[in-house]
């Protein structure tokens, strides 16, 4: 997807991207590929692919969820900043928190945020299992997002403890989602969530299906969750 198609396709979805925001995406792209030579941030480096599979795909969350109505967003396992930083560029009012267990990615994100002149962004090097037990973060966020981090039952245990009651957990998933959805019903319910919607879509120029699951946080997460690092993955709630 070239830059003009990126801008035009978002406009068709009701999202206007200013010159200044276009410049931020350009800086994001160049910083990503420059740092990717020193550390493993992404396997996608072709400019048109980055605009489609990282920038446009991240922003596609806003086709199904109104970010204007919320203030705080926590992105679990954001890696090189996806999906939260493209969303932050489009919705600058958001207060974005990223937690990732890989410190070198946090170093990259701090540098990137400076380059992009982003305010109200905070990065933590931590495991989501520990972060979700920390009183300063537990059940504090209007929205918790994650893309390509873990299968749905595991992801629910990482994300729902951080979501405030009345808030929303947004899971951006790939082609295997339908299977994951079935085996995560119990986890979502135990952790205090309730399925609201699942949207399926394809990126322009792409065949494979993408899914966006929207889960409402209805009740407080029981104190036992999240369990210690690694346990959600080894022994998922099923
Ligand atoms: C495959 S990458 C996806 C990155 C990004 N969300 C994207 O869509 O491009 C998964 C990221 O999740 C992080 N991660 C995995 N398990 C985690 C955990 N338990 N707590 C925090 N971060 C985690 C990894 O360090 C990695 O950066």
From TrEMBL:
Keywords: Cytoplasm, Methyltransferase, rRNA processing, S-adenosyl-L-methionine, Transferase. CDD domains: AdoMet_MTases. GO terms for cellular component: cytosol. It is found in: Cytoplasm. Pfam families: GidB (PF02527). Its EC number is 2.1.1.-. S-adenosyl-L-methionine binds at residues 77, 82, 128-129, 147. It comes from the Bacteria. Its main location: cytoplasm. Gene3D superfamilies: Vaccinia Virus protein VP39. One of its GO terms (molecular function) is rRNA (guanine-N7-)-methyltransferase activity. SUPFAM superfamilies: S-adenosyl-L-methionine-dependent methyltransferases. PANTHER family: S-ADENOSYL-L-METHIONINE-DEPENDENT METHYLTRANSFERASES SUPERFAMILY PROTEIN. Belongs to the methyltransferase superfamily. RNA methyltransferase RsmG family. Specifically methylates the N7 position of guanine in position 535 of 16S rRNA. This is Ribosomal RNA small subunit methyltransferase G. It comes from Salinibacillus xinjiangensis. The lineage of its organism: Bacteria, Bacillati, Bacillota, Bacilli, Bacillales. The gene is rsmG.
């Amino acid at each position: 997807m070239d830059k003009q198609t990126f801008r035009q396709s978002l406009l068709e979805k009701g999202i206007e991207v200013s010159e200044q925001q276009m410049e931020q995406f350009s800086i994001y792209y160049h910083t990503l590929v420059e740092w990717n030579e020193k550390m493993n941030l992404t396997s996608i480096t072709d400019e048109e692919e980055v605009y489609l599979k990282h920038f446009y795909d991240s922003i596609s969350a806003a086709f199904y969820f109104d970010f204007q109505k919320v203030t705080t967003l926590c992105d679990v396992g954001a890696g090189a900043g996806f999906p939260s930083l493209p969303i932050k560029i489009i919705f600058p009012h958001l207060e974005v928190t990223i937690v990732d267990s890989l410190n070198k990615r946090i170093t990259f994100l701090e540098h990137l945020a400076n380059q992009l002149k982003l305010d109200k962004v905070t990065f933590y090097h931590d495991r989501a299992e520990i972060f979700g037990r920390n009183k300063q973060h537990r059940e504090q966020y209007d929205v918790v997002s994650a893309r390509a981090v873990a299968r749905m039952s595991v992801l629910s245990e990482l994300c729902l403890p951080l979501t405030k009651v009345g808030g929303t957990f947004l899971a951006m998933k790939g082609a295997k989602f339908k299977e994951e959805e079935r085996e995560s019903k119990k986890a979502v319910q135990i952790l205090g969530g309730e399925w609201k919607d699942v949207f399926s879509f394809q990126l322009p120029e792409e065949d494979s299906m993408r899914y966006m699951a929207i889960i409402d946080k209805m009740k407080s997460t029981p104190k036992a969750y999240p369990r210690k690092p690694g346990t959600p993955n080894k022994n998922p709630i099923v």
